[in-house]
Write a structure and sequence with these properties.
This protein has 295 residues and is mainly beta. The protein has two domains: 161 residues, Immunoglobulins (Immunoglobulin-like, Sandwich); 117 residues, Immunoglobulin-like (Sandwich). The strands form three sheets. The chain has a twelve-stranded mixed beta sheet, sandwiched between helices. Strands 8-9-12 form a three-stranded antiparallel beta sheet. The chain has a two-stranded parallel ribbon with strand order 13-17. The radius of gyration is 23 Å and the shape is elongated.
């Protein structure tokens, strides 16, 4: 899976040089960005550690300034006390700068507090962040709404259904259609917009008529051709309630203290949890959308 969430990727791209305004207080030695993500299987979790400097360098100088990063990164499950050390790897970005990523593969638990620590080897200086993975989100289903049904052709202008998730916020939302493919069945996933804001369950409105056109294009079918449907599924990633979404303003992102839950440092480390669900929509409604339900 993509281990660096969209939030992390944005910050990685915007904070390559590790520059901190020298008038900022706090004296942190590192900026840390990343996440631990819970799922039913082990995942590789990744954070980036950027050494803090008080004067900006050109991109070529930045790679030299970060070349001697000598730290140990570890995570601790604060419920069980289990601690893991993360492995370091060096990456070079398009602008020529060098970044340090630390990762470990393990099965993170949902609804669990973690502590991520960055310890400088030569003097034991520590930067750390405490956060929690959210509960595994659960789904409930609204009725299928059929609008503009043509009595002769039996097809509707619009067929929609809300799937509501018990989560503070969702990202990485995809809707899966299990349909015939090859010698058996395949699941074709269609991305949906992230869902944020408000109180209560987060609704994702599935647009069956629109998605059918995407499926036809994907499967190489003719316009108007019926698609056999075996089942529906949806997969989401729930973010912690304290998750911070950065602005796109590079002037703000240049100051790592803007997004912070890190002790003795700068940056943000968050928790997330994947959730999934499978369901069979109303047969008549799916026929009105242009599908041929096989259930």
């Amino acid at each position: 899976m993509l281990l660096l969430l969209g939030f992390v990727a944005t910050l990685f791209a915007s904070c390559d040089d590790g520059f901190v305004d020298p008038f900022l207080r706090g004296g942190g030695a590192f900026s840390v960005y990343g996440a631990i993500v819970s799922d039913g299987v082990p995942l590789t979790h990744t954070v980036r550690v950027v050494p803090v400097r008080t004067l900006p360098d050109a991109p070529t100088d930045t790679s030299q300034a970060t070349a001697q990063l000598d730290v140990v990164v570890s995570s601790t499950n604060l419920v069980t006390g289990d601690s893991l050390q993360w492995a370091k790897r060096v990456v070079r970005y398009a602008n020529g700068t060098i970044g340090y990523l630390f990762s470990n593969t393990f099965r993170a638990q949902p609804d669990t507090p973690y502590r991520l620590t960055v310890r400088r080897i030569f003097d034991g200086y520590e930067t750390a962040a405490e956060f929690a993975t959210p509960l595994t989100p659960t789904a409930s289903y609204g009725p299928v709404e059929v609008i503009g049904l043509d009595g002769e052709q039996g097809l509707a202008d619009s067929v929609r259904q809300e799937v509501r998730w018990a989560a503070a916020r969702l990202d990485s939302v995809s809707v899966g259609y299990r349909v015939p493919g090859g010698s058996g069945a395949v699941v074709i996933r269609i991305p949906y917009p992230d869902v944020t804001g408000g109180e209560g369950p987060r609704p994702v409105e599935v647009d069956y008529v629109r998605d059918l056109e995407i499926l036809r294009d994907t499967l190489g079918l003719n316009p108007g051709q019926t698609v056999t449907l075996y089942e529906m599924s949806m997969r989401v990633r729930a973010l912690g309630a304290d998750w911070v979404t950065p602005t796109d303003d590079p002037e703000i992102l240049a100051q790592p203290s803007t997004f912070i839950n890190v002790e003795n440092g700068y940056g943000f480390v968050g928790g997330a949890t994947f959730g999934s669900t499978v369901w069979l929509p109303d047969r008549e409604a799916m026929q009105a959308a242009g599908f041929s339900p096989s259930y």
